[in-house]
Design brief:
Blueprint: E1 10-13, H1 17-28, E2 33-36, H2 40-59, H3 68-73, E3 75-78, H4 81-85, E4 90-93, H5 99-112, E5 118-121, E6 140-142, E7 144-145, E8 154-158, H6 165-176, E9 181-185, H7 192-210, H8 216-230, H9 236-243, H10 245-255, H11 267-274, H12 294-315
Parallel strand pairs: 1-2, 1-4, 2-3, 4-5, 5-6, 8-9
Antiparallel strand pairs: 7-8
Helix pairs in contact: 1-2
Length: about 325
């Protein structure tokens, strides 16, 4: 592992939505990135999407057009795992969110790299420390990026029971040096911070729709018009300071008994899945809303995220 984190070579294992996004993040900041995937089609799609993403970044003045060729040249696609991890200072695994698949991949990578190479995973829910078996567990770390990783300013970092302080400090230094914020957890909990918060909201939102109290459109309107404004600069605990912690406690006493206590996915979501309405990636291309042009909708969403980040950075 090089002392200067900006000189690190990065290997990303898996070129799906998150893998290619993470690879793009590091390559646009000057790192040499080896991107591995077994499937040629997945790799071809990933490289094409990365080019499209750079076009969006340039159109939003968040990346200079003259720097695109160099950023693309930093990215080295390969279908050979040994070639991908050769010379890497950090390997980030981004394969399927399946314990057996991740365990097998970590085992393969462990045999191909030296003991100083950091082995990270982009899992969003799994406690990888209870799953993988490697020769030097002190260099294993969860690095949960958010999509799209080259835009979203946060990375969650739950450390493991044997993860070394040096590994935690170096990886935090690496991503902070490129403008990311880091939310650390002393140990992993199911879903980490953001997925626990997100799906608590999803469960309650679906419950309200199922009860006939409101509609998905009105819930989205309410969230965007309140959370969308406040949560750019304060989280729920700081909000509590301003609203009154006593008020928070009083309202929770009243509302808690009325919240959904479901222990599985809401029927609302199951019904939509059965109808093929799983969002942009599904067979109909539709979800709660219609998406006749998935590529255009993705570009519009990315553009809105960039505009929001740019505005917040400039104004706050």
């Amino acid at each position: 592992m090089k002392d200067n984190v900006k000189e690190w070579n990065i290997a990303v294992v898996g070129a799906g939505t998150m893998g290619r996004s993470i690879a793009q993040f590091f390559s646009m900041y000057g790192h040499s990135v080896n991107l591995y995937n077994r499937s040629k089609k997945t790799m071809d799609d990933a490289l094409e999407q990365i080019k499209n993403d750079y076009a969006t970044l340039v159109s939003m003045d968040m990346f200079k057009e003259k720097d695109v060729p160099a950023a693309l040249a930093n990215l080295h696609p390969t279908h050979d795992l040994a070639e991908a991890v050769k010379g890497a200072d950090m390997v980030i695994e981004v394969v399927a969110e399946d314990p057996a698949t991740k365990k097998e991949m970590f085992s393969k990578i462990d045999k191909l790299v030296g003991p100083e190479v950091i082995l990270a995973t982009n899992t969003s829910t799994l406690n990888i420390y209870d799953i993988v078996e490697v020769s030097h567990p002190e260099r294993v770390l969860i690095t949960h990026f958010f999509t799209p990783a080259y835009i979203m300013p946060l990375m969650e970092m739950p450390r493991g029971p044997q993860t070394s302080d040096e590994v935690v400090a170096k990886v935090e230094e690496l991503v902070r040096s490129h403008g990311k914020k880091v939310a650390k957890l002393n140990k992993p909990c199911p879903g980490f911070i953001l997925n626990r918060m997100t799906f608590a909201i999803v469960r309650e939102a679906a419950y309200m729709v199922e009860q006939g109290w409101t509609t998905p459109e009105d819930i989205d309107e309410a969230i965007v018009g309140t959370f969308g404004v406040r949560y750019t600069f304060e989280g729920p605990f700081k909000l509590g300071d301003f609203c009154g912690i006593d008020i928070f406690a009083h309202l929770l006493d009243i509302l808690s008994p009325t919240f959904s206590n479901a222990t599985e996915a809401p029927q609302l979501l199951k019904d939509m899945i059965a109808a093929g309405n799983t969002g942009l990636k599904g067979p109909t291309g539709n979800g709660f809303y219609k998406h006749p042009d998935a590529a255009a909708d993705r570009k519009e969403r990315d553009s809105k995220i960039m505009k929001s980040i740019k505005f917040v950075n400039e104004e706050l």
